[in-house]
């Protein structure tokens, strides 16, 4: 028994490493993008580096989840590790932003298999009475990695070279590969079924169109341009075809019949909306620290540590409590904390202290942590083993979609508010109502573009701005970010409302058979 437990321990360690790599890779690269663009060039194309990863990962999640149900978890999980490591190695050798974009897409394909299948394997291999505790651990790592990425990215770019943002995945991936390859042996019998090719192709196409429309709109192309309108039209058409295809397929990529279960659809809705609210705070609090309070990149990353610790606490508590009480009894109070925490962020201004921000971030972390552990378990516990891969991958897909759409839509709102307030403030600060923003006449360094709030993140650039003008600009940035947090309260509140619909279900600990791994 001890040997068997040791082997399961190795499997779980491999799964945790895989989740850490895949979920951290987006945020860690975002922090290093300034240094990457400075070395490789291609400022006009850097948005594709993030988009390529997100598109490939999101499109792959439901597809790999379904395939793992049909043909087995291990082969697709090992495939995901190998592809992710290959993409990471290639990214470190990129000599242009175009090459890096292509290699990031390879990484994303691997990540699309890792996260959903890792949660499913965990659910398969451990005894039912241990799923809550381990689900809390897995959820804590998932939440921690999302917040830890920006901090690690800041340190790597400051003390090493940008290539190590990608190379760090190689030793982690190798360990995960060895643990899974040698210690995980599936005992569950899978049945080959017909692949839903039309559903897979239209889903990938719809995701590609939507993500590129959101990423390029208002930046590379105007929102009313033919390119952006065409992408949105393509998304609508392909999404409609996908929805139709899923109603006709024998084994659909996303089975709408699964959403008839109350706990399942409510878990997916909560994941999508809470993800949108959580990522907004994760991205814009560091910008507030640097751009408004004048902190360094590493300081702005450290301010996320309280949120990280808060999320670990409730992710772990949620994992333990879900075997003792209803899912909704865990989600309602924690999501209420998320709503309150985001509401308190709307009270920030230029005079706010770091300690005040830390307290608010702890509340947000406590509010979102349980969603990382409870929701995945609630979704999978509603189904038999043959459908758990699809259940897990659909929830992770919708969480990622919510995060992507949240940060994009709220980013548009923040940018517009910032530009408007900055223009008004600059007119008052310079006494020249007709002066154009960003010109030497307005008291700014030549060529400085303040339509992007990141322009204020560099202490060196801030020193070149006259104090009166800097005060006016930081006030505009502060006001725009605070308004952004006010908008982010909406998806948090919707997630809270959805939690009331989870019903009376809780994790049932019974005599269900599960897969032990460990070979012969």
TrEMBL record:
Major facilitator superfamily (MFS) profile domain sequence ranges: 11-507
Membrane disposition: Multi-pass membrane protein
Principal subcellular localisation of the protein: membrane
GO molecular function, one term: transmembrane transporter activity
Stored InterPro entries: EmrB-like (IPR004638), MFS (IPR011701), MFS_dom (IPR020846), MFS_trans_sf (IPR036259)
Localisation per UniProt entry: Cell membrane
Transmembrane feature ranges: 46-64, 76-98, 104-127, 134-152, 164-183, 195-214, 226-245, 265-289, 301-323, 330-348, 360-383, 395-413, 484-503
Gene Ontology CC annotation, any one: plasma membrane
Gene3D superfamilies: MFS general substrate transporter like domains
Keyword Transcription: no
Domain of life: Bacteria
Keyword Transmembrane helix: yes
Keywords: Cell membrane, Membrane, Transmembrane, Transmembrane helix, Transport
Protein name: MFS transporter
